[in-house]
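Form P-L/3: holo structure prediction, ligand calcium ion.
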Amino acid sequence: MTTPCATCPSDVQDSSKSTLMRARSCCDDRDARHNESVKILLVEDDRSIAASVVDGLTAEGFAVEHVSTGIAALAATDYDMVLLDLGLPDMDGREVFRQLRARATTPIIMLTARAEEFDRVLGLELGADDYVTKPFSFRELVARVRAVGRRTVDAPPDTGAPDDAGSTQRIGELSLDRRTRRVYLGTEEILLTAKEFDLLAFLATATGAVLTRTDILENVWDAHWYGPTKTVDAHVASLRKKLGNHDWIQAVRGVGFRLESPA
Ligand code: CA
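OUTPUT (holo model):
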């Protein structure tokens, strides 16, 4: 491991901090510099959780703004990703989510308490990009943040699509532009969450063919995904709703899903 550089956050150099923090120095992590461009809005009223998340993400090279209420979250501007606690003192976290989502497709990762199974499922149905269950490990949180960031802040993922070079793929009325991550049905733009876009783009790599749940989970989520496979169904359901026709994505029982222009 290299010696912390002058720009390392001081807590990285402070040996009294946790083992996890000491194990990381910003300058021995290639991602750290890269993460500098990503601004994260953390909405969390629990002070100790917030403090450790802010310290940790800052050490990883992210810029973090922390607010502890729903009102403050809705007033915040200029961020690339939101980490949203569902249990807030002033507003229902789901309402904060709905209002944030109504404004923009900025990725939102929900922070949920273990017992809130209902919220977890509902969160994905609402269109959250991912969720982390408390108590979560910092390593897990960073993996999720990086994965969501890669899909949305960076260049589009290499999906191996037939016409990646031309960037726009057409399937019947549907146009999908991987470069700009925009989707149109005819001339009308369909606003998708980052995860919905990734799911659609992945299904579109093999239009008409059946892609298995395992393929979908591995490609659209990532190797760090430990969540329920029901997640795929929740995202398929929201995509179908936005595309306005259930037949765009056909379920093949026991196998997976197929994207096809409705007959
Ligand atoms: Ca809370």
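COMMENT: The domain at 168-259 is CATH 1.10.10.10 (Arc Repressor Mutant, subunit A).
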